[in-house]
Specification:
By secondary structure, this protein is an alpha/beta fold. The protein contains 11 helices and 17 strands. It has a 5-stranded parallel β-sheet with strand order 3-2-1-4-5, sandwiched between helices. Strands 10-9-11-8-12 form a 5-stranded parallel β-sheet, sandwiched between helices.
Protein backbone atom coordinates (compact mmCIF):
# COMPACT_ATOMS: atom_id res chain seq x y z
CA UNK A 1 0.00 0.00 0.00
CA UNK A 2 1.26 3.48 -0.85
CA UNK A 3 2.52 5.57 2.07
CA UNK A 4 1.07 8.70 0.50
CA UNK A 5 -2.42 9.98 1.23
CA UNK A 6 -5.02 10.18 -1.52
CA UNK A 7 -5.52 13.75 -2.72
CA UNK A 8 -9.19 14.75 -2.24
CA UNK A 9 -10.90 16.60 -5.05
CA UNK A 10 -14.47 17.30 -6.12
CA UNK A 11 -15.19 16.21 -9.69
CA UNK A 12 -17.61 18.38 -11.68
CA UNK A 13 -19.05 15.77 -14.02
CA UNK A 14 -22.10 17.58 -15.37
CA UNK A 15 -22.37 16.84 -19.08
CA UNK A 16 -19.11 14.88 -19.08
CA UNK A 17 -18.81 11.24 -20.14
CA UNK A 18 -18.54 8.66 -17.38
CA UNK A 19 -18.22 4.97 -18.24
CA UNK A 20 -19.43 2.30 -15.81
CA UNK A 21 -18.53 -1.33 -16.40
CA UNK A 22 -20.85 -3.80 -14.71
CA UNK A 23 -24.44 -3.29 -13.54
CA UNK A 24 -24.65 -5.27 -10.33
CA UNK A 25 -25.07 -4.22 -6.72
CA UNK A 26 -21.97 -1.98 -6.65
CA UNK A 27 -23.07 -0.06 -9.73
CA UNK A 28 -26.59 0.16 -8.29
CA UNK A 29 -25.17 1.97 -5.24
CA UNK A 30 -22.85 4.26 -7.19
CA UNK A 31 -25.04 5.27 -10.13
CA UNK A 32 -27.51 7.54 -8.27
CA UNK A 33 -24.71 9.92 -7.20
CA UNK A 34 -23.34 10.06 -10.75
CA UNK A 35 -26.84 10.74 -12.07
CA UNK A 36 -27.32 13.49 -9.46
CA UNK A 37 -24.00 15.00 -10.59
CA UNK A 38 -25.41 15.34 -14.11
CA UNK A 39 -22.88 12.99 -15.69
CA UNK A 40 -23.35 11.62 -19.21
CA UNK A 41 -23.26 7.95 -18.20
CA UNK A 42 -22.49 5.03 -20.49
CA UNK A 43 -23.23 1.72 -18.78
CA UNK A 44 -21.63 -1.39 -20.30
CA UNK A 45 -22.80 -4.79 -19.04
CA UNK A 46 -24.53 -7.88 -20.46
CA UNK A 47 -27.07 -7.82 -17.62
CA UNK A 48 -28.22 -5.54 -14.83
CA UNK A 49 -30.13 -5.55 -11.56
CA UNK A 50 -33.77 -4.54 -11.76
CA UNK A 51 -33.01 -1.14 -10.23
CA UNK A 52 -30.22 -0.39 -12.68
CA UNK A 53 -32.41 -1.52 -15.58
CA UNK A 54 -35.07 0.90 -14.37
CA UNK A 55 -32.51 3.74 -14.46
CA UNK A 56 -31.74 2.85 -18.08
CA UNK A 57 -35.42 2.64 -19.01
CA UNK A 58 -35.93 6.08 -17.45
CA UNK A 59 -33.19 7.50 -19.67
CA UNK A 60 -30.90 8.32 -16.74
CA UNK A 61 -28.09 6.19 -18.19
CA UNK A 62 -27.27 4.80 -21.63
CA UNK A 63 -26.98 1.01 -21.42
CA UNK A 64 -25.11 -1.15 -23.95
CA UNK A 65 -25.83 -4.82 -23.20
CA UNK A 66 -22.42 -6.31 -23.86
CA UNK A 67 -19.02 -6.89 -22.30
CA UNK A 68 -16.16 -4.40 -22.18
CA UNK A 69 -14.20 -3.83 -25.39
CA UNK A 70 -10.91 -2.04 -25.93
CA UNK A 71 -11.62 1.58 -26.81
CA UNK A 72 -14.77 1.91 -24.67
CA UNK A 73 -13.16 4.73 -22.70
CA UNK A 74 -12.72 7.04 -25.64
CA UNK A 75 -13.83 10.52 -24.55
CA UNK A 76 -14.42 9.53 -20.93
CA UNK A 77 -13.47 11.72 -17.96
CA UNK A 78 -14.07 9.14 -15.27
CA UNK A 79 -14.40 5.35 -15.18
CA UNK A 80 -16.00 3.04 -12.64
CA UNK A 81 -15.19 -0.68 -12.94
CA UNK A 82 -17.52 -3.00 -11.02
CA UNK A 83 -17.57 -6.33 -12.89
CA UNK A 84 -16.73 -9.71 -11.33
CA UNK A 85 -14.26 -10.59 -14.14
CA UNK A 86 -10.71 -9.89 -12.83
CA UNK A 87 -9.13 -10.22 -16.26
CA UNK A 88 -11.53 -7.78 -17.89
CA UNK A 89 -11.13 -5.40 -14.96
CA UNK A 90 -7.35 -5.44 -15.30
CA UNK A 91 -7.52 -4.83 -19.06
CA UNK A 92 -10.03 -2.00 -18.66
CA UNK A 93 -7.97 -0.46 -15.86
CA UNK A 94 -4.91 -0.51 -18.10
CA UNK A 95 -6.82 1.33 -20.83
CA UNK A 96 -7.93 3.98 -18.35
CA UNK A 97 -4.33 4.41 -17.16
CA UNK A 98 -3.04 4.71 -20.71
CA UNK A 99 -5.66 7.34 -21.52
CA UNK A 100 -4.99 9.18 -18.21
CA UNK A 101 -8.57 8.75 -17.04
CA UNK A 102 -9.26 8.52 -13.33
CA UNK A 103 -10.45 4.98 -12.64
CA UNK A 104 -12.14 3.36 -9.64
CA UNK A 105 -12.05 -0.43 -9.25
CA UNK A 106 -14.43 -2.17 -6.87
CA UNK A 107 -12.39 -5.40 -6.91
CA UNK A 108 -8.90 -4.00 -6.30
CA UNK A 109 -8.56 -0.58 -4.69
CA UNK A 110 -4.75 -0.70 -4.82
CA UNK A 111 -4.81 -1.14 -8.60
CA UNK A 112 -7.11 1.85 -9.04
CA UNK A 113 -6.04 5.43 -9.72
CA UNK A 114 -8.97 6.84 -7.73
CA UNK A 115 -11.06 5.89 -4.72
CA UNK A 116 -14.72 6.58 -4.07
CA UNK A 117 -15.17 8.29 -0.69
CA UNK A 118 -18.03 7.64 1.67
CA UNK A 119 -20.25 10.60 0.77
CA UNK A 120 -23.19 12.34 2.39
CA UNK A 121 -25.01 15.64 1.95
CA UNK A 122 -26.79 18.07 4.20
CA UNK A 123 -28.20 21.45 3.14
CA UNK A 124 -25.72 22.17 0.36
CA UNK A 125 -22.73 20.65 2.17
CA UNK A 126 -21.05 17.54 0.75
CA UNK A 127 -19.11 15.41 3.20
CA UNK A 128 -16.61 12.97 1.69
CA UNK A 129 -14.49 10.67 3.86
CA UNK A 130 -11.54 8.48 2.88
CA UNK A 131 -9.77 6.08 5.26
CA UNK A 132 -7.76 4.07 2.76
CA UNK A 133 -8.62 0.40 3.08
CA UNK A 134 -11.27 0.71 5.79
CA UNK A 135 -14.56 1.57 4.04
CA UNK A 136 -16.67 0.78 7.10
CA UNK A 137 -14.80 3.37 9.13
CA UNK A 138 -15.20 5.85 6.28
CA UNK A 139 -18.96 5.28 6.32
CA UNK A 140 -19.12 5.59 10.12
CA UNK A 141 -17.24 8.90 10.12
CA UNK A 142 -19.39 10.17 7.24
CA UNK A 143 -22.59 9.23 9.05
CA UNK A 144 -21.46 10.92 12.27
CA UNK A 145 -20.59 14.18 10.52
CA UNK A 146 -23.74 14.28 8.38
CA UNK A 147 -25.99 13.43 11.32
CA UNK A 148 -24.33 16.18 13.36
CA UNK A 149 -24.95 18.71 10.60
CA UNK A 150 -28.54 17.60 10.21
CA UNK A 151 -29.56 17.63 13.84
CA UNK A 152 -27.50 20.68 14.78
CA UNK A 153 -25.15 18.95 17.23
CA UNK A 154 -22.24 19.77 14.93
CA UNK A 155 -22.01 23.55 14.73
CA UNK A 156 -21.51 24.86 11.21
CA UNK A 157 -22.70 28.48 11.20
CA UNK A 158 -23.54 30.16 7.93
CA UNK A 159 -21.64 33.30 7.06
CA UNK A 160 -24.08 34.64 4.46
CA UNK A 161 -27.32 36.22 5.55
CA UNK A 162 -30.40 34.50 4.20
CA UNK A 163 -32.88 37.20 5.18
CA UNK A 164 -36.25 36.61 6.81
CA UNK A 165 -37.60 33.10 6.43
CA UNK A 166 -40.16 30.77 7.95
CA UNK A 167 -40.31 26.99 7.79
CA UNK A 168 -43.61 25.18 8.24
CA UNK A 169 -42.38 21.89 9.66
CA UNK A 170 -44.49 18.79 10.03
CA UNK A 171 -43.32 17.17 13.26
CA UNK A 172 -45.01 13.81 12.74
CA UNK A 173 -47.47 12.02 15.02
CA UNK A 174 -45.69 12.65 18.34
CA UNK A 175 -42.66 10.40 18.64
CA UNK A 176 -39.67 12.79 18.30
CA UNK A 177 -37.80 10.19 16.25
CA UNK A 178 -40.45 10.44 13.52
CA UNK A 179 -39.74 14.02 12.49
CA UNK A 180 -37.96 14.23 9.14
CA UNK A 181 -34.22 14.83 8.98
CA UNK A 182 -34.80 18.17 7.30
CA UNK A 183 -37.34 19.20 9.90
CA UNK A 184 -34.99 18.39 12.74
CA UNK A 185 -32.15 20.34 11.13
CA UNK A 186 -34.30 23.43 10.60
CA UNK A 187 -35.47 23.19 14.20
CA UNK A 188 -31.86 23.14 15.36
CA UNK A 189 -31.16 26.32 13.35
CA UNK A 190 -34.23 28.23 14.59
CA UNK A 191 -34.27 31.43 16.63
CA UNK A 192 -38.02 31.22 17.24
CA UNK A 193 -40.24 28.14 17.36
CA UNK A 194 -44.03 28.50 17.22
CA UNK A 195 -45.14 25.09 18.49
CA UNK A 196 -48.42 23.18 18.40
CA UNK A 197 -49.62 21.06 21.29
CA UNK A 198 -49.59 18.02 18.99
CA UNK A 199 -46.03 18.54 17.77
CA UNK A 200 -43.17 16.40 19.13
CA UNK A 201 -42.81 18.19 22.48
CA UNK A 202 -39.65 16.33 23.51
CA UNK A 203 -37.73 18.13 20.76
CA UNK A 204 -38.37 21.49 22.41
CA UNK A 205 -36.28 20.46 25.40
CA UNK A 206 -33.28 20.01 23.09
CA UNK A 207 -33.35 23.61 21.85
CA UNK A 208 -30.59 26.00 22.98
CA UNK A 209 -31.55 28.47 25.74
CA UNK A 210 -31.63 31.46 23.39
CA UNK A 211 -34.43 29.99 21.26
CA UNK A 212 -37.82 31.58 21.94
CA UNK A 213 -40.66 29.06 22.07
CA UNK A 214 -44.17 30.40 21.47
CA UNK A 215 -47.03 28.17 22.61
CA UNK A 216 -49.63 27.96 19.83
CA UNK A 217 -51.59 25.14 21.41
CA UNK A 218 -55.21 24.59 20.48
CA UNK A 219 -56.88 22.58 23.24
CA UNK A 220 -60.22 21.09 22.08
CA UNK A 221 -63.04 23.15 23.58
CA UNK A 222 -60.48 24.99 25.71
CA UNK A 223 -57.66 27.49 25.48
CA UNK A 224 -56.19 28.27 22.09
CA UNK A 225 -54.08 30.77 20.20
CA UNK A 226 -56.10 32.32 17.41
CA UNK A 227 -54.91 31.57 13.90
CA UNK A 228 -54.54 35.27 13.11
CA UNK A 229 -52.30 35.67 16.15
CA UNK A 230 -50.17 32.74 14.98
CA UNK A 231 -49.85 34.27 11.51
CA UNK A 232 -48.86 37.63 12.99
CA UNK A 233 -46.24 36.03 15.24
CA UNK A 234 -44.65 34.26 12.28
CA UNK A 235 -44.55 37.47 10.25
CA UNK A 236 -43.28 39.74 13.03
CA UNK A 237 -40.41 37.48 14.06
CA UNK A 238 -39.41 36.81 10.45
CA UNK A 239 -39.36 40.54 9.68
CA UNK A 240 -37.12 41.00 12.72
CA UNK A 241 -34.52 38.91 10.87
CA UNK A 242 -35.03 35.74 12.87
CA UNK A 243 -35.15 32.17 11.63
CA UNK A 244 -38.66 30.98 12.47
CA UNK A 245 -39.97 27.42 12.57
CA UNK A 246 -43.69 26.71 12.80
CA UNK A 247 -43.65 23.24 14.37
CA UNK A 248 -46.90 21.40 13.71
CA UNK A 249 -48.14 17.93 14.51
CA UNK A 250 -48.40 15.46 11.63
CA UNK A 251 -48.19 17.13 8.23
CA UNK A 252 -48.70 20.91 7.81
CA UNK A 253 -51.25 20.44 5.04
CA UNK A 254 -53.34 17.64 6.56
CA UNK A 255 -55.93 19.46 8.70
CA UNK A 256 -53.09 21.64 9.95
CA UNK A 257 -54.00 25.05 8.51
CA UNK A 258 -50.59 25.14 6.91
CA UNK A 259 -51.88 26.72 3.73
CA UNK A 260 -53.48 29.56 5.69
CA UNK A 261 -50.11 30.32 7.24
CA UNK A 262 -48.30 30.00 3.92
CA UNK A 263 -50.76 32.41 2.31
CA UNK A 264 -50.33 34.95 5.13
CA UNK A 265 -46.56 34.76 4.77
CA UNK A 266 -46.78 35.16 1.00
CA UNK A 267 -48.94 38.28 1.39
CA UNK A 268 -46.31 39.69 3.74
CA UNK A 269 -43.54 38.94 1.22
CA UNK A 270 -41.80 36.40 3.46
CA UNK A 271 -40.30 33.25 1.91
CA UNK A 272 -41.79 30.07 3.29
CA UNK A 273 -40.41 26.54 3.23
CA UNK A 274 -42.84 23.67 3.70
CA UNK A 275 -41.38 20.51 5.23
CA UNK A 276 -43.86 17.63 4.94
CA UNK A 277 -44.39 15.46 7.99
CA UNK A 278 -45.54 11.92 8.65
CA UNK A 279 -49.30 12.17 8.92
CA UNK A 280 -50.98 10.57 11.93
CA UNK A 281 -53.66 9.29 9.54
CA UNK A 282 -51.24 6.58 8.38
CA UNK A 283 -48.56 6.39 11.05
CA UNK A 284 -50.77 6.03 14.11
CA UNK A 285 -52.78 3.09 12.72
CA UNK A 286 -49.47 1.54 11.65
CA UNK A 287 -48.01 1.97 15.13
CA UNK A 288 -51.07 0.17 16.51
CA UNK A 289 -50.62 -2.73 14.07
CA UNK A 290 -53.32 -1.65 11.63
CA UNK A 291 -52.56 -1.31 7.89
CA UNK A 292 -54.86 1.21 6.23
CA UNK A 293 -54.80 -0.96 3.09
CA UNK A 294 -54.28 -4.69 2.68
CA UNK A 295 -54.41 -6.98 -0.33
CA UNK A 296 -57.80 -8.59 -0.65
CA UNK A 297 -59.26 -6.52 2.19
CA UNK A 298 -59.04 -2.81 1.40
CA UNK A 299 -57.92 -1.16 -1.81
CA UNK A 300 -58.53 2.38 -0.63
CA UNK A 301 -58.47 4.53 2.46
CA UNK A 302 -60.15 7.87 3.04
CA UNK A 303 -59.02 10.44 5.58
CA UNK A 304 -61.80 12.57 7.05
CA UNK A 305 -61.99 15.32 9.63
CA UNK A 306 -64.54 14.51 12.31
CA UNK A 307 -64.49 17.79 14.19
CA UNK A 308 -67.89 18.78 12.78
CA UNK A 309 -70.95 16.60 13.43
CA UNK A 310 -72.65 15.01 10.39
CA UNK A 311 -75.83 17.01 10.94
CA UNK A 312 -74.02 20.33 11.30
CA UNK A 313 -74.86 22.69 8.38
CA UNK A 314 -71.17 23.68 8.18
CA UNK A 315 -70.05 20.09 7.50
CA UNK A 316 -68.39 19.60 4.11
CA UNK A 317 -68.30 15.79 4.36
CA UNK A 318 -70.64 13.56 2.33
CA UNK A 319 -71.16 10.92 5.01
CA UNK A 320 -73.69 9.04 2.90
CA UNK A 321 -71.12 8.56 0.16
CA UNK A 322 -68.48 7.50 2.70
CA UNK A 323 -70.85 4.87 4.10
CA UNK A 324 -71.05 3.25 0.67
CA UNK A 325 -67.28 2.85 0.36
CA UNK A 326 -65.82 -0.59 1.03
CA UNK A 327 -62.35 0.58 2.05
CA UNK A 328 -60.89 2.01 5.23
CA UNK A 329 -62.06 5.24 6.84
CA UNK A 330 -59.56 7.13 8.98
CA UNK A 331 -61.07 9.87 11.13
CA UNK A 332 -59.04 12.63 12.73
CA UNK A 333 -60.35 14.97 15.44
CA UNK A 334 -63.41 12.74 15.80
CA UNK A 335 -63.43 11.65 19.46
CA UNK A 336 -66.17 14.09 20.51
CA UNK A 337 -68.43 13.27 17.56
CA UNK A 338 -67.66 9.57 17.03
CA UNK A 339 -71.07 8.36 18.31
CA UNK A 340 -72.97 10.56 15.87
CA UNK A 341 -70.58 9.73 13.04
CA UNK A 342 -70.92 5.98 13.60
CA UNK A 343 -74.72 6.21 13.72
CA UNK A 344 -74.75 8.20 10.49
CA UNK A 345 -72.55 5.67 8.70
CA UNK A 346 -74.79 2.80 9.82
CA UNK A 347 -77.92 4.72 8.80
CA UNK A 348 -76.49 5.09 5.29
CA UNK A 349 -75.60 1.44 4.85
CA UNK A 350 -72.30 0.63 6.55
CA UNK A 351 -72.64 -2.58 8.56
CA UNK A 352 -73.12 -2.04 12.28
CA UNK A 353 -70.59 -4.80 13.07
CA UNK A 354 -67.82 -3.09 11.06
CA UNK A 355 -64.64 -3.20 13.20
CA UNK A 356 -63.44 0.10 14.68
CA UNK A 357 -60.21 0.94 16.49
CA UNK A 358 -59.54 4.16 18.36
CA UNK A 359 -55.84 4.84 18.95
CA UNK A 360 -55.10 7.52 21.51
CA UNK A 361 -51.75 9.36 21.58
CA UNK A 362 -50.30 7.09 18.91
CA UNK A 363 -46.50 6.56 18.67
CA UNK A 364 -45.97 8.02 22.16
CA UNK A 365 -45.33 6.11 25.42
CA UNK A 366 -48.97 6.82 26.36
CA UNK A 367 -50.39 5.08 23.27
CA UNK A 368 -53.42 2.90 23.82
CA UNK A 369 -55.90 1.19 21.52
CA UNK A 370 -59.61 0.69 22.12
CA UNK A 371 -61.47 -1.73 19.83
CA UNK A 372 -65.19 -1.66 19.10
CA UNK A 373 -67.68 -1.77 16.23
CA UNK A 374 -69.71 0.97 14.63
CA UNK A 375 -72.61 -0.09 16.84
CA UNK A 376 -70.61 0.18 20.07
CA UNK A 377 -67.84 2.72 19.48
CA UNK A 378 -69.71 5.72 20.87
CA UNK A 379 -70.40 4.04 24.20
CA UNK A 380 -66.95 2.40 24.30
CA UNK A 381 -65.10 5.67 23.82
CA UNK A 382 -67.10 7.31 26.59
CA UNK A 383 -66.69 4.34 28.95
CA UNK A 384 -62.94 4.12 28.35
CA UNK A 385 -62.45 7.86 28.77
CA UNK A 386 -60.72 8.26 25.42
CA UNK A 387 -59.47 11.80 24.88
CA UNK A 388 -57.85 13.63 21.98
CA UNK A 389 -55.53 13.28 20.25
CA UNK A 390 -56.85 10.03 18.86
CA UNK A 391 -57.20 8.46 15.44
CA UNK A 392 -60.26 6.40 14.56
CA UNK A 393 -59.90 3.57 12.03
CA UNK A 394 -63.04 2.01 10.55
CA UNK A 395 -62.99 -1.08 8.34
CA UNK A 396 -62.05 -4.74 8.05
CA UNK A 397 -58.33 -3.92 8.30
CA UNK A 398 -58.88 -3.33 12.02
CA UNK A 399 -59.42 -7.07 12.51
CA UNK A 400 -56.16 -8.04 10.82
CA UNK A 401 -53.11 -9.26 12.69
CA UNK A 402 -49.50 -9.75 11.46
CA UNK A 403 -50.34 -13.43 10.93
CA UNK A 404 -52.97 -12.60 8.31
CA UNK A 405 -51.77 -12.98 4.71
CA UNK A 406 -54.26 -12.83 1.87
Amino acid sequence: MSEHFAYPVGLRLSGRRVVVLGAGQVAQRRLPALIAAGADILLISPSATASVEAMAEAGEVSWERRRYQEGDFEGAWYVLITTDDPEANATASAEAEARRIWCVRSDDAEAASAWTPATGRSEGVTVAVLTGQDPRRSAAVRDAVVEGLRDGTLAAPRHRSRGPRVALVGGGPGDPDLITVRGRRLLAEADVVVADRLGPRDLLDELPPHVEVIDAAKIPYGRFMAQEAINNALIEHAKAGKSVVRLKGGDPFVFGRGMEEAEALAEAGIPCTVVPGISSSISVPGAAGIPVTHRGVAHEFTVVSGHVAPDDPSSLVDWAALARLRGTLVLLMAVEKIGAIAATLVAHGRAADTPVAVVQEGTTPAQRRVDATLATVGEKVAAEGVRPPAVVVIGDVVALSPRDHR
